[in-house]
Amino acid sequence: MAHGYRLKTSTTSPARLPTLAALPSEAHIVDIGKPLDDIDAFLQSNTLIVNITSKDIDGFEHLVRKIEASGIEAVLFVSSTSVYPDSCKLVSETAGEESPDHPLVDIENLFLQSRQFRTTIVRFAGLIGGSRHPGRFFRGGKVVKNPEANVNLIHRDDCIDILDRIVANGLWGEIFNACADSHPSKREFYTQAAKMAGAPSPVFEDSDERSYKIVDNRKLKRVLGYEFRHPDLMAIRFD
């Protein structure tokens, strides 16, 4: 909105409509788990950002058909770095290292294969920042498994900036990994985060096993010319 865009927003909950309308935005109900017969007005836009955590392939297939029948020219689909298995190495979006049986891979392809609009995929790492304080992720004695594994995380501020940069520059037809530069171990990162939250240190699984992946963000930085606001996870000071 600050950049002059007219904004439409959606939610699955009628109770949230007043909150979205107060932004101000044109607020709509969109639930891909239900019939989408009444979303034509919502799809009267140039660009659509799809940020839905559902793995309902049938629902997404129906959504794609609705987008194809609309005036949408470009789609920015928010995916996840969970499409990569723990291969104990650096993983990139250009090496074909995705898990073939991960539902998000099939959903990404639904968008990428359409000829009616252009799609860019952004695979976000684990979200932190704002209300998502990592020091509270493992409260109540929840055990942190695989504590020596490297974390792949991204701050909310960077998520918003990256989405904005892609739309502003019309970077369509791309796949980007979006993850902070640093990859401390779970033990190192969550111990410090719990301390900042004033919470007890997490309980770590007693295991020397280290199954991990390190998400490569170099393509994002090169193509977008992007510099992360929070590149070093250990340097972030959470509220």
What can you tell me about this protein's structure?
- The chain is of the alpha/beta class.
- The protein has a domain at 31-131 and 153-183 and 213-229: 3-Layer(aba) Sandwich (Rossmann fold).
- It has 6 helices and 12 strands.
- It has helices at 17-21, 57-68, 103-112, 156-169, 186-196, 218-224; strands spanning 8-11, 26-29, 47-50, 74-80, 90-91, 118-124, 126-128, 143-144, 153-155, 175-178, 203-204, 214-215.
- The strands form 5 sheets. It has a 4-stranded parallel β-sheet with strand order 3-4-6-10, with helices on both faces.
- α2 packs parallel to α3 (103-112).
- The longest helix is centred in the C-terminal third of the chain and has 14 residues, at 156-169.
- It is globular, with a radius of gyration of 19 Å.
- The two termini are 26 Å apart.
- 27% of the residues are buried.
Q: Quick one: CATH superfamily of one domain?
A: NAD(P)-binding Rossmann-like Domain
Rg, rounded, reads 19 Å
Q: Which structural class fits the helix and strand makeup? A: alpha/beta
**Which stretches are poorly predicted, pLDDT < 50 over at least 5 residues?**
none
Question: How much helix is in the residues?
Answer: 10-25%
> Could you name the CATH class of one domain?
Alpha Beta
Which fold name fills CATH's third level, the topology of one domain? Rossmann fold
Distance linking N and C termini: 26 Å
- Beta content: 15-25%
Major beta sheet, strand line-up: 3-4-6-10
The CATH architecture of one domain can be given as 3-Layer(aba) Sandwich
Report the count of strand segments. Answer: 12
What is the arithmetic mean of pLDDT?
95
Shape: globular
Q: What is the string of helix and strand elements?
A: EHEEHEEHEEEEHEHEEH
Number of helices: 6
